[in-house]
Amino acid sequence: MRITRVQNQAIDRPLKAPFAIAYKSVDRVRLFLFQLETDTGIEGIGAAATDEPVTGETDEACAAALAPENLAWLEGREIIAPAPLCRDLAQRLPETPAARAAVDMAIHDAWAKRLDLPLADALGRAHAEMPTSMTLGIRELEDTLAEAREFLGMGYRILKIKIGQDLEEDIARVRKIRELAGREILLRVDPNQGYTLDGLIRFSLETDSLDIEMIEQPLPVAEIEKLPALPEKLRRKIAVDENLIGEKDAIRLTGPYPAAGIYNIKLMKCGGIHPARNIAAIAEAAAIRLMWGCMIESRISLAAALHTAFACPGTRYLDLDGDWDLVEDVAEDGFTLENGVMRTSAAPGLGIGMGKAYLP
Ligand SMILES: [Mg+2]
């Protein structure tokens, strides 16, 4: 199966409401679609959304990396297994991980379609289903509680609460959400680097009775070396996100005293399915649990993350709610989401259905 043609397209999508975290707020997102055609008639699809504050990749850089003239080297290449092409991608697009992820997932999509298997099965499935969290951005408390009520009403059983702008308000906010949600609901928090070490310890003590499952990236990226000094019980429920971009970070964070018990892998940070599986292998060898996160993204890349997550035995947490905020996604299928539980679709590859409206 040889690649005959590559295409891309950028699409701007508004969000249902502005989405705020500790260090930024957005009201629209640019989605990059990528498609490759092969001489078998099989097509592979991928998508990207940049995360400039974390990876340094701008929308302009992503668009330039995905331009067909920049990827002409793919035309004529054979897809037997994804790895050789993905290794070349890492060499050729080192500074644009989201663009790399879009191409990487299109290669995997075509490969698994050729095998006539859902991608998770082609990679070696370890999980059939898992619940995802839904994320509450930073808003007024009443709006946050209304949104929490809405998600619980839809059947979600895990809420991820964005915090990190004001410690006192955060503690009060988490307490109110616990009161609203009851004891059966799992609560995760994400200060997005908004805490000092003292603030983190204080938050942890004050919310001890609230049974918080996970604290994501509490400290600024530059202060990661402070985490190994914390008690193991606290470290085990900390997830690294902004500190974990690629494979080198995954190795560095393993020890000798791991900074955190959980790695939050995002395809848009690490550059796709191939590097994500490398990170997963490093984490699993170090007994670090895996969480799969996302940007605000189309379900094309969310499906890619879910298939990959289900092919990794160490996967424990999903946070793949990224198309909820879109007024309208650009694709269909890839996975089902019922009562907060995600399952990959049974169709081959990523299982994505999309019209030809975007990529002629
Ligand atoms: Mg995060």
Walkthrough of the structure:
With 360 residues, the protein is of the alpha/beta class. Helices cover 35% and strands 24% of the residues. The chain contains 13 helices and 16 strands. The protein has helices at residues 52-55, 59-66, 82-92, 97-115, 119-123, 141-153, 167-181, 197-206, 232-236, 247-252, 267-270, 273-285, 299-310, and strands spanning 3-21, 24-38, 43-48, 130-131, 134-136, 158-162, 186-190, 212-216, 238-240, 262-265, 289-292, 315-318, 332-333, 335-338, 341-344, 352-353. Strands 5-6-7-8-9-10-11-12 form an eight-stranded parallel sheet. Strands 1-2-3 form a three-stranded antiparallel sheet, sandwiched between helices. α9 links the parallel β8 (212-216) and β9 (238-240). The radius of gyration is 20 Å and the shape is globular. The two termini are 21 Å apart. The model has no long low-confidence stretch (mean pLDDT 95). Bound molecules: magnesium ion.
Number of strands: 16
Instruction: Record the strand order, biggest sheet.
Output: 5-6-7-8-9-10-11-12
- Tell me the helix content: 25-40%
Amino- and carboxy-terminal Cα gap: 21 Å
Give the mean pLDDT: 95
The gist of it:
This protein has helices at residues 52-55, 59-66, 82-92, 97-115, 119-123, 141-153, 167-181, 197-206, 232-236, 247-252, 267-270, 273-285, 299-310; strands spanning 3-21, 24-38, 43-48, 130-131, 134-136, 158-162, 186-190, 212-216, 238-240, 262-265, 289-292, 315-318, 332-333, 335-338, 341-344, 352-353. The protein is α/β, with parallel strands linked by helices and 360 residues long.
